[in-house]
From TrEMBL:
GO terms for molecular function: DNA-binding transcription factor activity; sequence-specific DNA binding. Keywords: DNA-binding, Transcription, Transcription regulation. The keyword Transcription regulation applies. The keyword DNA-binding applies. Residues 183-268 form the HTH araC/xylS-type domain. PANTHER family: HTH-TYPE TRANSCRIPTIONAL ACTIVATOR RHAS, HTH-TYPE TRANSCRIPTIONAL ACTIVATOR RHAS-RELATED. It comes from the Bacteria. The lineage of its organism: Bacteria, Pseudomonadati, Bacteroidota, Flavobacteriia, Flavobacteriales. InterPro entries: AraC_XylS_family_regulators, HTH_AraC. This is HTH araC/xylS-type domain-containing protein. Gene3D superfamilies: Homeodomain-like (1.10.10.60).
């Protein structure tokens, strides 16, 4: 089973905001030695409010490190494993956006977001000040109160979903049906060309339908490996079960998403501060 996160708490979202935000995640470290966490890719856009000590981050197996300082930052779409180090005094809130939720709030095309650059949200749009919101939140210590203020702020500034985005949202379920070609199905339902569907995914979500399909399969592989009790599962069985061409095809996905091999993942990451987005202990408090 996946390891329990002792430095995080997930807060679910309800009501109309749930169409934009999948969940909030509170990250903290109250004391002791530094802890390095590994977050599996999710393709989601992340909005971070850091109230505590600086958080060094890196991606996959890269030695290049960025630092999340106090303030508000944006990262995403999260296409590779995010490594982050929590030191004593760490205290951050992460807002996880749904498919086109980030675009609905910022009205910024996601085509050029590389997934690793740390952005200042105030430089993405001049319509409202995230710095002012951060300063307000800094004066509060109660986590639920902070989350409620963030939720109200987002709800106030969120734009109505563009009509051109709706076919992508309505057709999201096609990506979970292996018997269906999602792009063709969405194009047929919305009377669009397949090329139009692909372009809209890039603009409003920040990734292509092909990337989404590839990620969803890999996500199932990770779930299988994480939950199995076997010390070293048969990789040929994984290849067959998830319709990979061969073992090198599977390894290629591991290199792409995690920067490692399946065997090294099991040896170095499984059960060792490796987490998937949306997992972790859940608070009884629901944010609306």
């Amino acid at each position: 089973m996946e390891q329990e996160d002792k430095n995080g708490m997930l807060y679910t979202v309800d009501g109309s905001l749930n169409a934009v935000i999948s969940h909030f995640y509170h990250i903290y470290h109250n004391g002791g030695a530094p802890v390095i966490k590994h977050l599996s890719p999710s393709l989601e856009m992340l909005l971070l409010f850091n109230f505590g000590t600086s958080i060094p981050i890196s991606f996959n197996n890269s030695s290049s490190t960025k630092v999340i300082k106090k303030g508000c930052s944006v990262i995403g779409p999260l296409k590779q494993m995010l490594n982050y180090e929590l030191n004593e005094g760490a205290d951050s809130i992460v807002v996880n956006f749904r498919l086109s939720g980030f675009y609905s709030l910022f009205n910024v095309p996601l085509n050029n977001f590389d997934g690793q650059t740390v952005y200042n949200p105030d430089e993405l749009t001049g319509k409202y000040s995230w710095h002012e919101l951060y300063e307000t939140l800094s004066e509060i210590t109660d986590v639920k109160a902070r989350l409620t203020i963030i939720a109200d702020y987002v709800a106030h500034y969120i734009r109505e979903m563009d009509a051109v985005v709706q076919p992508l949202i309505d057709g999201e379920h096609y990506f979970y049906n292996p018997a269906t070609h999602p792009v063709k199905a969405i194009a047929s339902d919305a009377k669009l060309t397949e090329r139009t569907v692909q372009i809209r995914f890039q603009k409003y979500a920040g990734y292509s339908p092909k990337e989404l399909l590839r990620f969803l399969r890999f996500k199932m592989v990770i779930a299988q490996l994480t939950n199995t009790q076997e010390k070293m599962p048969d990789m040929f069985e994984i290849v067959t079960a998830f319709n990979y061409h061969d073992q090198s095809h599977l390894i290629k996905d591991f290199q792409q998403f995690l920067g490692t091999t399946p065997q090294q993942f099991i040896k170095d990451l499984k059960g060792k501060e490796f987490f998937t987005v949306g997992s972790g202990p859940k608070s009884l408090d629901v944010i609306e």
